[in-house]
Amino acid sequence: MFSTEEKKEALQEKLKRIGQDGLLAFYEELNEAEKSALLCDIEAIDLPLMERLYQTIGKPLSDSAAGEIEPIGGTDAASLPATERERLYRIGLNELAAGRMAALTMAGGQGTRLGHTGPKGTYDIGLPSHKSLFEIQCCGLKKISEEAGRTVPWYIMTSRINHDETTAFFAAHDYFGYGRENIYFFPQMMIPAMDREGRLLLENKYTVLKSPNGNGGLFASLLQSGGIEDMRRRGVTRIFICGIDNCLVKMADPLFLGFFEESGEKAAAKSFLKRTADEKAGVFCKRGGAPCVIEYTEIPKALAEQKDEQGTWVYGDTNVLNYIFELDTAERLADAGLPYHIAVKKLNYIDFRTGTPAILPDGYKFELFLFDAFSRLDGLAVLRIERTEEFAPVKNLTGIDSAETAREMYLNIHKEELLQ
């Protein structure tokens, strides 16, 4: 068993060889608990991975982006006969009644862009009821659980920056009457950030600067936290997935679940048609025969503008971030080795020379994207929805996709709110 000092000496030599010894710049100033915390933090870093990521900056992610682009094909929910919609809805509702689906909300972000100081899910969009985004989703789950006659278990992915605030918020609101036993909180995995020279940084003198590893780390985080094991204990075999910022999301939608069950695929996604050929949104398609999401910046202009005989965009099904995955598939994808995407972001860190807080305007963060997992599947079922009925994101303080526009869209559908 190595002592703290022995561990420090071994790490210092290792870090020095790779130019990362700045992480120990303030070691001698720390108390014993802080020294131990810092060493554990550094030991947990996959240093070879961080070196590989730095070497890939400015280069294509992989050759997975190669291959002919083809339409993926989707089903327009609105065009289905009423009897078919009802049939699929009943199939999904029966699955919910049997306890085979859980809902999962990705809620690791803060409401900074909204001028909000807490977790984004705690944000009040200005409804007469003053429901937060969390309560809006919870109300949707309560409604469908009542219809199914069984409570849908709810899994909420937080992050290191908002986990404690999120759980405290739920406790303070008595879990919105949903029952603590029906909600499972788990933190998103983190990955170190770095500066332009590839140096890892410190958040404070005893903590390495890290950021959430993106929604593509969802399944690995769920597995590591024990969430997948908890799902299996409950008898869950399907996961409904959404983000926190869409206040019109249909939680655990039975129609979507019925559509998924009938598709025979391992995963399904909702989409809506883009408004214009160059709308800034990723679209579903096939690339090299595998399902994928292609960014608007990557799709050739001729394909982006292509329409079918009915005048519908051939490559127009946009990614709504609303999915269903088989649990077995989710567990397999937890080890899929998705590619990291590099983002240039402002970083708040501790200067190695002065020990004072500093701001780096153009540091590197690394994220995994969940839609990259689609290329690991043989197929993907796509259900097209109406944008105005199911998509009202709360991203900005004012203007497009703001609390104001989301509130208006929400109240247009949920008119009962106006009476509160």
SSE layout and pairing:
Elements: H1 4-17, H2 32-43, H3 47-56, E1 69-70, E2 75-76, H4 82-97, E3 101-106, H5 133-148, E4 154-158, H6 163-172, E5 183-187, E6 190-192, E7 202-204, E8 207-208, E9 210-212, H7 218-224, H8 227-234, E10 238-243, H9 254-263, E11 267-273, E12 283-287, E13 290-294, H10 301-304, E14 317-326, H11 327-333, E15 340-350, E16 357-368, E17 381-384, H12 387-390, H13 403-413
Parallel strand pairs: 2-17, 3-4, 3-10, 4-5, 11-17
Antiparallel strand pairs: 1-12, 6-9, 7-8, 10-14, 11-14, 12-13, 15-16
Helix pairs in contact: 1-2, 4-9
Notes on the protein architecture:
The protein is α/β, with parallel strands linked by helices and 420 residues long. The chain has 13 helices and 17 strands. An eight-stranded mixed sheet has the order 2-17-11-14-10-3-4-5, sandwiched between helices. The chain has a three-stranded antiparallel sheet with strand order 1-12-13, with no helix packed on it. Strands 6-9 form a two-stranded antiparallel sheet. The longest helix is centred in the first third of the chain and has 16 residues. The chain is globular. The protein starts with a helix and ends in a 7-residue tail after the last helix. The model has no long low-confidence stretch (mean pLDDT 93).
Features:
alpha/beta, eight-stranded mixed sheet, 420 residues
The string of secondary-structure elements, in order, is HHHEEHEHEHEEEEEHHEHEEEHEHEEEHH
Poorly predicted spans? none
Cα(first) to Cα(last) distance is 63 Å
The overall pLDDT, averaged over residues, is: 93
Number of helices: 13
Rg, rounded, reads 23 Å
Trace the largest sheet across and list its strands. 2-17-11-14-10-3-4-5
